[in-house]
Amino acid sequence: MTHDLMRDLIDELGARVECIVITELRERTFYAEIRLVLGTHPGTTSSARPSDAVALAVRIDCPIYAEEELLDAEGVVLPDDEDEDETPEADELVSEFRDFIEGIRPEDFG
């Protein structure tokens, strides 16, 4: 698979993936970066489709982050499980989100 090839090429070059970062949402399209460390050159980045970046991260077990600005603009704050003021609507929203996360595949990001 392409993501396995990507992993192998990065390894053969002596590089390592520091992390994956979902950077922005523009016109309903997400963008991502693969942040690499190549020898003594940290901070090397490569633009990638989020689906490819996430698929690579899963294969090499590296962290996946999102830019703070993206979370501020597009994120949804879910209440803590310990909140006593939870409403049935909040419970339903959390349940729907969990169902969504459990069914998501890397291909869904592209």
Helices and strands, with pairings:
Elements: H1 2-12, E1 15-26, E2 29-38, E3 41-48, H2 50-60, E4 64-66, H3 68-74, H4 88-103
Parallel strand pairs: 1-4
Antiparallel strand pairs: 1-2, 2-3
Helix pairs in contact: 1-2
Polypeptide structure, described:
There is one protein chain. With about 110 residues, the protein is of the alpha+beta class. About 40% of the residues lie in helices and about 30% in strands. The chain has four helices and four strands. α1 packs across α2 (about 50-60).
Total strand segments: 4
Q: What proportion of the residues is helical, as a percent range?
A: 40-55%
Distance between the termini: 16 Å
Poorly predicted regions are: none
| Structure annotation, total helices | 4
Widest beta sheet: strand line-up: 3-2-1-4
Strand percent estimate: 25-35%
The biggest beta sheet is recorded as:
4 strands, mixed
Order of helices and strands: HEEEHEHH
Oligomer: single chain
Shape: elongated
Global structural class: alpha+beta
Give the rounded overall mean pLDDT. 84
Radius of gyration over alpha carbons? 17 Å
Question: Which properties best describe this structure?
Answer:
110 residues; alpha+beta; 4 strands
Summarize the structure.
By secondary structure, the protein is an alpha+beta fold.
